[in-house]
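Field reference: "sequence" (input) and "structure" (output). Example, BFD-like [2Fe-2S] binding domain-containing protein:
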Amino acid sequence: MNDPTICRCEGVTLRQIEKCLTVPDTSVSLRELKLQTRAGMGICQGRTCMPLLMAIADASGRGLSNDAGLPRNQPIRPIAMADLMNVVSKPERSVAE
């Protein structure tokens, strides 16, 4: 495998991450890696790829030391249309009742 996938959710490869880390004379934060490559923006919100991203950034010598990482959002999950219709179709009770 010549170019392994690091972030499976977004299809980000090692080559894409290394390209971001090759900017001369600058350090790159994990947030910057995320913004430039979309790694960590998938459904798992970086729970799978973040350890790999941190290891790659550390090994390159271009990652920021003491980088706090990224805030994680709650993962999304599908909701059935029937559930949405039940919420919308229920009439609201008035205060007078």
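The helical segments are 14-20, 30-37, 50-60, 81-89.
The radius of gyration is 20 Å.
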